[in-house]
Each structure stands twice: as structure tokens, then as C-alpha cells.
Amino acid sequence: MKPENSTPLSFVSTEPSSPWATYLSQVDRVVPYLGTYARWVETLKRPKRALIVDVPIEMDDGSVRHFEGYRVQHNLSRGPGKGGVRYHPDVTLEEVMALSAWMTVKTAAVGLPFGGAKGGIRLDPKELSRKELERVTRRYTSEIGFIIGPQRDIPAPDVNTNAQVMAWMMDTYSMNTGATATGVVTGKPIHLGGSLGRVKATGRGVFITGREAARRIGLPLEGARIAVQGMGNVGGTAADLFVQAGGRLVAMQDHTGTVYNPDGFEMKSTLDLIRREGGVAAHPKGEKIDNESFWDVDCDILIPAALEGQITPERANRIKAKLVLEGANGPTLPSADDVLRERNILVVPDVICNAGGVTVSYFEWVQDFSSFFWTEDEINQRLDKIMVDALNHIWETADRHQITLRTGTFAVACERILIAREERGLYP
Ligand code: NAD
């Protein structure tokens, strides 16, 4: 078989720090470890399908506004597409492509029978009323309706979308197809086919992989100092579980600012304050420090759980932690990965670290099909086992090839994807 040939994609930028460029560089790094499957690697470097939709809605004042929406299905070799929908003013097609590709890697790394997809709308939800948000969600769902479905592509919440948005998506899809289809999205409200444990699953997965990594490098959780960027769903839950395990949350940063307390923040009052005040900046027990100083904080475990591209080589040189747990997607630039490796700082990469959410999404999808629901204990136990088994396998692969956990995760996942691609063959 001759190697695949391809022309560069015309619709991506060449900006080296873009999320898509980060993803491509991660794929390039894994090629030497893919054996004969490396000949199919071009498959991973382009999305299968990228849909751009116009989302016009009537605003409350009677005017009409158009928003730009996307749904990208990066790879469906191993099963239906799976991935969240992000509402953010900075969302771009290229960002959604990268996020969809990381979903392909993530579902394969954990062994879930899904491909990778992602969606988004360029909007600031803070500028929209609840009714406007509902209209934009329903119109977007209708526009992407012909490529999603319980057996085709199953959206879920991501930044600025939640169970209510999923309920509107499920209802719209069901109205358009004429039958209630709970399995078309995950992350739904519990009484609409949602799963217990889903809301906290991503943060719980960060904790589980972090606990295992800490054990392997001899870092006790009792007394471990934790710093978290992004105290939302993922970062807030992970911080809470680490504190329950004996850790101390010493620094937090979110869109409102950065606070530091070497004695540790008390979790219940902190989470209450974030809900009440909308951010960490108002914390009365924390010293306010400037945002850049967050990266200099003395800590043992650093959890970036906000945005992409946060750990630059310059910041990587200042980080004091022994362990970095990537709750966010794509928080570390490839050049910063090299710095962290040289400095012997272990990174548990996003593609395994934050896979707890999609794992419980998988449980939700399975429960919806069987219309039989599990207890929260069953869900948390199954999540723990799947995450620990996946991490162990990745660790062995990384040890065998003497590569980072990120390249190890890509090696495990990309081989699974490319085996599926080879076994299915090329149509026609
Ligand atoms: P969220 O909206 O609940 O929380 C986001 C947090 O990031 C908030 O605390 C916000 O203040 C903070 N933030 C925003 N802008 C910031 C800035 N400029 N500087 C510092 N902090 C900033 O979102 P989430 O669901 O917790 O998602 C966080 C990250 O985790 C995202 O990268 C997302 O893609 C990823 N992720 C989420 C899930 C999930 O199930 N929710 C699953 C996998 C990955």
C-alpha cells in the first residue's frame, strides 16, 4: 500500500500557537510509535466533516441577529461522534476542529465506542436573555439536525452550556424527528434521561487520574498544595475532591482575578462564594495577587481548568508544581510540554485527565437506550475503574517507549483509531 497523499487544508491558519496547530504537532509526535498504522495518519489530520451554520434569531426587542455556529465531526471510525457545544464570543471553526480532534483521541484513549465531534456558537451568553438563548439553541439544533442523532453524533455541554441547553436541544431534535430521542444529547437534566454523577464527572476524573499519578510519583495527597485556574464545573469539583482527600487549595484564578492563601481555602464557603459573587476575586480569606503571579505560586499540584494555550514555555519555566493535571482542553503549548518534561514536571494530559465527563456521558447514553438507570455509587465506581485501567495502560505504553504521558495517550488512542480505519477499509 502506498502512503497517503494530501493537500494542506485551505481553511486553517498557520498560526503556530493555534489549538489546531497544537493538535497537529501532538499527532506528529506520535507517528514514530504507530508502527505500520502510521500509514493512515493523514486521516487524523483533517476533520471528516465540518459544518458552518447561520443561526438567525429574533431578539427580545424585535430585531433579528445572526450568529455563526459550527459542528465538526473529526472522526467516526470507532462509533458515533461525541463532543460538547461551546457558547463563547471567541469560538472559531479552527478551535472547534481542534476540540473535535481531541475528542476523537479522548474517546479512543478511554476505550469508549465513539468518534470525536464538537460544536459551538460565536456568542456571549451574558448578552442574551434566557428566551434569546433558548431561541438560538433551538435554531442551532435544527440547523445541525441532519448530522446529529443518537447513532450519528451526540452533543453534550461545554463552556457556557448546561443541562438546560441540552434539554432544549433534545426537545428540538425530538420535535423535528417526531419522537422523543433522549439519547441525542448527554448532560441532560436527571428527569429527562440524564445520569447521576454526570455534572461532577469531569472534575472527578481529574481527581482520579491525579490521585493515581501522585501515588506513582510518591506525592502524598495529605497536605498537597493545590493551585487551580478556572474554578468552574471542572476545576471546582476537582479542587473539592483533592481537599476531601487531605489536600490544601492554596491558589485560585478565574476570569475575575487571582487569590492566594498558603493555609488553604475552606471549600464549602469558597464554592458558595463563587456561586453567589460570580468569581473568586471577592474571597475575603485570600490575598489578591496579579494574574501572572499565579504561575509562580508554591504548590505541588497545578490544575489548569479554564482555557486553551495557558501554559506557555515562559510560564512552564516558572511553575513550581510536581504534577500538572489538565482539566481544560489544550492548556499546554507543545513547546511548553518540552520545558515541563525537561524540568521533570509530570503532566497528565487533557486527553485522559478530563475524560471522566465523556465517560459518564457514555453511561448516560447507554442508560437512555436501555431505559434503566444506575445509582450514583455504581456510576462513580465504574468511572473509577475505567479511568484507572486506561491510565495504567497509557503509563505502561509511555514507560515502554520512554515518552511523555501525552504522547503515550496519543499512541494508545491513535492506534485504536487507525486499526478501526484499516479494518473498515476505504469507501468506495
Ligand atoms: P465553566 O464555565 O464551568 O468554568 C470555566 C472557568 O474558567 C470559570 O471559573 C471561569 O471564570 C474561568 N475562566 C474563564 N476565563 C478565564 C480566564 N481568562 N482566566 C482564568 N480563568 C478563566 O467550564 P468547565 O465546564 O469547568 O470547563 C473548563 C474547561 O474544562 C474547558 O476547557 C472545557 O473544555 C474543559 N472540559 C470540560 C468538561 C465538562 O464536562 N464540563 C469536560 C472536558 C473538558
Mind explaining what this structure looks like?
- By secondary structure, the chain is α/β, with parallel strands linked by helices.
- Among the domains are: 47-178, 3-Layer(aba) Sandwich (Rossmann fold), CATH 3.40.50; 201-353, 3-Layer(aba) Sandwich (Rossmann fold), CATH 3.40.50.720.
- Helices cover 42% and strands 17% of the residues.
- It is built from 13 helices and twelve strands.
- It has helices at 19-30, 93-110, 130-144, 163-177, 198-216, 233-244, 267-277, 313-316, 334-342, 350-353, 356-370, 376-401, 405-424; strands spanning 49-58, 64-75, 81-88, 116-122, 153-157, 225-229, 248-254, 257-260, 287-289, 301-304, 323-325, 346-348.
- The strands form two sheets. Strands 9-8-7-6-10-11-12 form a seven-stranded mixed sheet, sandwiched between helices.
- The chain starts with 18 loop residues before the first helix and ends with a helix.
- The relative contact order is 0.13.
Q: What is the number of E strands?
A: 12
User: Can you give the helix content as a percent range?
Assistant: 40-55%
Overall form: globular
| CATH architecture level-2 label of the domain at 201-353 | 3-Layer(aba) Sandwich
Mean pLDDT: 96
What ligands can be seen in this structure? nicotinamide-adenine-dinucleotide
Q: Output the helix-strand order.
A: HEEEHEHEHHEHEEHEEHEHEHHHH
What is the CATH H-level superfamily of the domain at 201-353? NAD(P)-binding Rossmann-like Domain
**What is the CATH topology descriptor of the domain at 201-353?**
Rossmann fold
Distance between the termini: 16 Å
Secondary structure tally, helices: 13
Low-confidence stretches at least 5 residues in length (pLDDT < 50)? none
Estimated radius of gyration = 21 Å
Largest sheet: 7 strands, mixed
* Backbone structural class: alpha/beta
- Please report which band the strand proportion falls in: under 5%, 5-15%, 15-25%, 25-35%, 35-45% or over 45%: 15-25%
